[in-house]
Amino acid sequence: MKRFVCALLAMLLVCGTAMAEFDLYIKQYPLSESGEAIINDVTFVDGWQQADDNNRVFYEIFVGSFSDSNGDGVGDLRGIINRMDYLNDGDPTSGLSLGVEGIWLTPIFLSPSYHKYDVADYYQIDPQFGTMEDLKELIELCHERDVKIILDLVINHTSTGHNWFRQFSSAHLTQNPDNIYYDYYKWLDPEEQAPAGRTYAKVAGRDLRYEANFSETMPELNFDNGAVCYAMLDVAKFYLELGVDGFRFDAAKYIYYGNHESSVEFWDWYIGKLREVKPDVYTVAEVWDGDGVIDNYLPVTSCFNFTASQTAGIIAETAGGGDVNRFTKYVESYLSGVDAISDNALGTLFISNHDMDRAAGYLTMASGRMKVAASLYLLSPGSPFIYYGEEIGLRGSRGGANTDANRRLAMLWGDGDTVRDPEGSTYTKQSTYTVKDLSRMSDSLLNHYKQLIMIRKANPEIARGEYKALAFTNTKVGGFTCTWNGSTVAVLHNTTGSDKTVDLSQATDIGFDTLAAVAGGGQAFLEGTVLTIGGQTSVVLR
After folding, report:
1. Closest by alpha carbon to 348, among 390, 308, 305?
2. pLDDT tens for each residue of 107-118
3. Is 286 one of the annotated active-site residues of the chain?
4. In 324, 340, 344, 445, which residue has its Cα 20 to 30 A from 403's Cα atom?
């Protein structure tokens, strides 16, 4: 009866899917003493242990919306510390925690805004989020559990409340070009015309105009000034010496607005200096643009893949029943391009982040497409990024209110956590499910994410192997092989709503005889070279 009801609900909620196409397979995981489902169907191969590299699943935490430890409604560092057993309990085989291998914290420095992307003091943790001691404790806890931690470092601009800007403004008021802060920010004389495409704001009561392309409260630093370069270098060195593993660089292409060559030259110098402090420093840049522009930055750092993300991205397109062969062909081209360009960069796939509408709003949990999307990008090499709450189907979009606060809503824990939605948010169509709810549902989206990360860790070839797309014809089923340390696995996906059968010998001469993992809505069977794979299901073959 339970299977029938669940399948019926799924069929009613998936538009355009005929009843005959659906065969929902409900996994029955055992429950822990606290009632959480324990993922126990993943076999860890010999040599699975986490390699000391950056091919890890990262988890972006919008700090103010994640978990509140002191009852003021704002998420904080102590809240993250309290939730580490949820993120990673230190035992990759426990089947209880999400199992993420890295954490990206959005800005935590002193700032007047809720989002903290306008820093007022890089050397002070915002009191809303905690203290420097809290950060040190979180770093230590992460490292005890083999989790890397990176900070969101916003160096393109600061807050107008930063002391540097006050000194800059004062130096211009007194007409003192000898003041070291006189050229700390980009500015124009009253008679100068603003360059095309750039935005300038005016200091109240003065003729001074400063560049502020994101907001008049976010003046842009002048990286033609060596003092600025070294001041920002000192900030990053401070946190590396504190113990963080690296940084996510905000607005990386805007260091020199419209001049990628100069921006890349800066990042080459900057990250090179960081590698002198920490040779294995992890860096990933926000270069929100097409692959052709991003390629300019890859010789220096990993960059998020924006082509594959969001509503129109190839991940969402494929998850909606699209052709997996087209997806794997793109990923193969993307990864080979990254490898050809750089020894330092990794493939970095994601669906959405804090600046985008949440994926559950257009992929939806009920349709099963959220699970398929997760399988597509998490079972790929490199360093994929999960946006907090994605694993429980949190929704949120700018909507008519046109505010990013709607994309950064409070995590739903279901256990009395007092974290609230950020100021300015208006979105009311939030998920009805909490972490507590989904952790007890064997076949939930949350448990699917747990299973995928375990599969990825249990089969280390997926994360760091050489990727080769498998070319199937006359079917949307597709996949790839990954070879690492002389071992090869195959990953195949069926994004449609019905069972499909493929003959592996048509796409590869490698003999796979073990069905190592099955994830998603259906079952799978391997008989010789013939693989039958259920609808919205992914498999790993060895």
Report:
1. 305
2. 999 999 999 999
3. yes
4. 445
Report the SS3 class of residue 143. helix
Distance CA 461, CA 466 (A): 8
> How many beta carbons lie within 10 A of that of residue 70, not counting itself?
12
User: Which amino acid is it at 376?
Assistant: L
User: Mean pLDDT in each 10-residue stretch from start to end of the chain (542 residues)?
Assistant: 37 34 56 87 78 91 98 98 98 94 98 98 98 98 97 98 97 95 94 90 88 97 98 98 98 96 98 97 97 97 97 97 98 97 95 97 96 98 98 94 96 98 92 92 95 96 97 96 96 97 96 96 96 98 96
Q: 128: how many CB neighbours lie within 10 A of its CB?
A: 18
Give me the pLDDT at residue 11, please. Answer: 36
User: Length of the chain, please?
Assistant: 542
Looking only at the bridges linking them, the beta strands covering 187-188 and 478-484 are unpaired
Q: Where are the alpha helices (DSSP H) in 278-320?
A: 291-294, 314-319
CB burial of residue 144 (10 Å; 0-12, 13-18, 19+): exposed
- Indicate yes or no: pTM above 0.90: yes
Burial label for 100, CB within 10 Å (0-12, 13-18, 19+), is: buried
Phi-psi region of 93 (alpha: psi -120 to 50; beta: other; left: phi over 0): alpha
Of the listed 68, 76, 220, 286, which one is catalytic? 286
Amino acid in the structure at residue 67? S
The DSSP H or E segment spanning 124 is: strand 121-125
For the chain, what percent of residues have pLDDT higher than 90? Answer: 85
> Cβ–Cβ contacts within 10 Å for residue 337, how many?
16
Q: Are 101 and 147 in contact (CB under 8 A)?
A: yes
- Whether 385 contacts 353, CB under 8 Å: yes
User: One of 60, 211, 220, 250 is an active-site residue; which one?
Assistant: 250
